[in-house]
Amino acid sequence: MKLNKASLFALISVLELARDPERQLSTSDIADKYGISSHHLAKVMRNLVHQGVVQAMRGVGGGYRFAGNVNRTTLLDIIQLFETLESELDLPHWNKAAEPVVSELHSVTSEIDTVTRAILDTVTLATVLKNTRATGEGAAEASPPGRISKAAAG
Amino acid sequence: MSKITIRDAIPSDLEAIIALDRTPNEDKTGYWQGIFQHYVVAGRPDRVFLVAQEGKSLLGFIIGEVRAWEFGSPPCGWVFALRVSHTTREGGIGTRMFTEICERLKKAGVDTVRTMVDIDNKLTLSFFRGMGLRTGRYVELEKRID
What we know:
Largest interface: A-B, 14 and 9 residues
CATH class of chain B: Alpha Beta
Structural class of chain B: alpha+beta
Distance between the termini of chain B: 51 Å
Shape of chain A: elongated
Helix content of chain B: 25-40%
Protein name (chain A): Winged helix-turn-helix benzoyl-CoA degradation transcriptional repressor BgeR
Helix content of chain A: 40-55%
Shape of chain B: globular
GO molecular function, one term (chain A): DNA binding
Organism (chain A): Citrifermentans bemidjiense (strain ATCC BAA-1014 / DSM 16622 / JCM 12645 / Bem) (Geobacter bemidjiensis)
GO cellular component, one term (chain A): cytosol
Oligomer: heterodimer
CATH class of chain A: Mainly Alpha
InterPro entries (chain A): TR_Rrf2-type_CS, Tscrpt_reg_Rrf2, WH-like_DNA-bd_sf, WH_DNA-bd_sf
Strand content of chain B: 15-25%
Radius of gyration of chain A: 18 Å
Order of helices and strands of chain B: EHHEEEHEH
CATH superfamily of chain A: Winged helix-like DNA-binding domain superfamily/Winged helix DNA-binding domain
């Protein structure tokens, strides 16, 4: 599967903020750390504020704070704010003879979608953060900020 | 919360386990009697039945065992039952029981633990994800036989 850029930026931002719910970070803080577009991230953050996932703090030193529950919020909760995960078969004009094949392909892609959703809907932010720490977040922080790959950024 | 201990199940735990697992319209008494014979009375190190106890109350249980060559798999640990009392969830009891059963299974000679969970059971799936389990090498397949 390939997440769209908005979903990916949202996941990065929410996880970064959820690491320390007391901390406030600006769009620039997050964009600079991950080497992503600050302009695009600002749009994503507005959506996250609107959905109540993060809270915008006004004034000097303002920024964003995580407003959810890391044990209750799943990856799917964030992703589905920006996209649906249903597979699409791009065959708008098939004739009747194609229907059995298309139907079977729909069945297979539906299986894939069901498993994908089950995984994303049961991986909580807490689990991701725990695994992130376990795989050496400290080492990553000591390194210069890197850019996420162009392919991943869409 | 007073001190919770994780210990091996004993035959006198049977009624409490049945009560913990009770669901409307299902009588699992016979099932649990068989499970106790196999996992408690037999007293084998490769079959593990643990309970969480606080005072005189049982708050949860977890059951697993070492299985070999099912589905072509070399020996591995299988956890096939886990329950924590509704009133004490999110208190770390499940984590303690799972950690302990992994230790027991490791001592019994395996380095992998597996389980299977209904795809709609988000609570249990999230728990096992949190314990570090991921989609494994085997895919469950099924078909209705009409």
